[in-house]
Amino acid sequence: MNLNWLTVILASVLSYLQMDFLCLLFGHLFSTALKPVAVQNPFKNELLIKFTFVMRIYWKSDTILQWDLSAFRSLYLLVSHAEAFPRPPPSPPPPSLLPPIAQPLSLSPKPCHLNLSSFAILSIAPLTAYVAHHLFAARPRSGAMADQATPWPLRPQLLPFPSPLPLPLLLLFLLLAPFQDAAADPARDADVLLKFKETLASGGGDVALHNWVAGSSPCRANVTQWAGVLCNLDGSVRGLQLENMSLSGALTTDVLVDLPALRTLSFKNNSFEGSIPDMSKLRALRSLYLSANEFSGAIPDAMFLGMQWLKKVHLSRNAFTGRIPGSLVGAARLLELRLDDNQFEGHIPDFRQSGLWLVNVSYNNLEGPIPHRLAKMSPNWFEGNADLCGAPLSDACGSPSTKLSAALIIAIISITISLLLVVAALILIARRRKKEEEALTTQLPSSKSIKIEHLPADKPDHRPAHHGGGKKVPKEEQGKLIFVKEGAVKFDIQDLLRASAEVLGSGNFGSSYKAILLEGPAVVVKRFKEMNGVGREDFHEHMRRLGRLSHPNLLPLVAYYYRKEEKLLVTDYVFNGSLAHMLHGGHGSNLPPLDWPARLKIIKGVARGLAYLYEELPMLTVPHGHLKSSNVLLDSAFEPILSDYALVPVMNRTHASQIMVAFKSPECVQSGKPCKKSDVWSFGILMLEILTGKFPANYLRQGRVGTDLASWVNSVVREEWTGEVFDSNMKGTQGGEGEMLKLLHIALACSDTDADKRCELGEALAKIEDLKEYDDGHCLVVG
Ligand SMILES: Nc1ncnc2c1ncn2[C@@H]1O[C@H](COP(=O)(O)OP(=O)(O)OP(=O)(O)O)[C@@H](O)[C@H]1O
């Protein structure tokens, strides 16, 4: 009788009779003897589990199952073992290489193709037990007491009548089982491995795998013939263990798909680099070891999809990046996962495999909560990830709402701090600007006020109305110097502060100072404090209008600066200072006194400049408004240049009426307001000043007719003409006396107290233009 048959019968009988001890012994003997076979062939282990499950249903008794499983397990392993030898081994292996697991081979000295017959035998075991049960155990079941009286080891009460249902299941299972094992083919395996060796050739494979040669077999039964090859009992290649072989380069495992029995791949401790090889086709792989290499890059999320047999994945000490592949969650039999010392990031997938006992993800860049299933593992396996939280680590995870509110608080604090910083910066800028302005204005001496008679407060303002409507000053220009002269060299307030400054004098409006810019021309800055009665836009509009004026006898406005309380006007510096200085400077002036031709030239220039203002600013009652000798500057050629013109519209009304020359005209005394000829009057007085060399009291006092320059000249000329009326310092008069006298008469005509009788500017200009430096054939004797 075949051993298989004997085993089946014995196991069935023992199982049925509940002879626990014998059954245990029987099972134990077979289990121990065939354990290596079972270990090497996990599929058969799997089959065994199914088998016992069916048995469990069949017997419906845990107590029986315990012993019975041992028996049937042994039985099954025996059958499997016999099946593992499709043909005899080619030659006996060397005695020294024979592993102890070769021993059980003696249990089946003769190879047999068991397949159907073996499974037929196997199926007989439960069937035998079933029939036996049916025949013998049915009787005790008729009386419960009898069941209880049955002495040990016979305990039929534990053997309820089995349901017929498991039988078909069992048969089905047994029929399906044989198709699982593929036939071993060493020649094919050798071919595949040689192809694989070729892929490693450049990376040291030739040296390390030198005994992988064509014509030989990688396995002889379960004995390895080629370096690093793991073999099954049937001589098929079970795995590759190419560890510590100094292999390098990229690893490609595509060809290994043709090794049907391949279950293990280990390339630990080499120098493989690049991305992880595509393992997705090695569906039957149980163990994958790639630790301690130089693999890098992200692992595709679906890499392990369908690899349901995968039990061990070791990828430690590489440079893998990206997320932990989610397909590992689907590897239902996963036991060990080592990903430590990489650069994995993101969350740990929600591993739930019941057998998973090792998950080491230490020293990566992982974050978020550790899945509940891993909470009882060693905390060391999760250390080195700054943002991981939850058990087994001591850092508790905040709830999402807590995190949200924390993020919200951080955002609010950041925004508040940013706003505070912005506000602080704005305050600092404003303060700095104010300081600069203060610094600028303190560098300018305060204007010296000159007391003059006040106009009645109710006197109307005759300045032309300026309504807004001009284009608005852009915000960025506010608080800055605004340049109105075309082609002017640009600079800012800081440049002015840095420039070397010289006070030119203090006038009625404020002081003027000369600033020599570090890089640029010398400019004059005049400060006006009495210019705050006009709106910002009107002021800007007027300044823009002045900036558009251009005449050789006008001092162009270069730039201005607007502050509510104070304005700065910037003009070019005029080399020879003012006419007032030339006329009345006395010993302070290094220049010789102006001679007659120079004075005539100055008067002509002033007349032209004034006429230009009348033409360009017809809307102004007094286009100049403040014509006097200190506002007539002399350039290097002693050409007159008018300054401080057209400021009446932007001056404070009261101040203007007190200070400005046009407001000192006789008609202003009488009617309280200047007229179109008020500037002509100022011009007349200026001409008298130039001709006589006397400082007109008219500049100082208002309406004191009789004591002013015009009255004096008039009286002198009327009573007895004398040359004393002309400036005694004026040289070059010889031969020009007649022209001088003509000019004197023109001046008197312009300064007539009666505005109606007063000469028109155009008329005066025409007459003045006709004047020559020397008389035509006349020779006046100047006394
Ligand atoms: N652009 C300039 N170039 C050279 N000197 C100038 C310039 N502007 C003004 N000055 C001179 O600086 C001095 C002060 O002038 P400022 O205009 O401040 O006062 P003022 O003309 O004497 O009186 P007011 O304030 O009534 O006009 C004067 O001697 C004037 O001639």
From TrEMBL:
Domain of life: Eukaryota
Location of the Protein kinase domain: 498-781
PROSITE patterns: PROTEIN_KINASE_DOM
Keywords: ATP-binding, Glycoprotein, Kinase, Leucine-rich repeat, Membrane, Nucleotide-binding, Phosphoprotein, Receptor, Repeat, Signal, Transferase, Transmembrane, Transmembrane helix
Pfam family, one: LRR_8
UniProt entry tagged with the keyword Transferase: yes
Compartment list: Membrane
GO MF terms held by the record: ATP binding; protein serine/threonine kinase activity
Protein's UniProt name: non-specific serine/threonine protein kinase
Taxonomic placement: Eukaryota, Viridiplantae, Streptophyta, Embryophyta, Tracheophyta
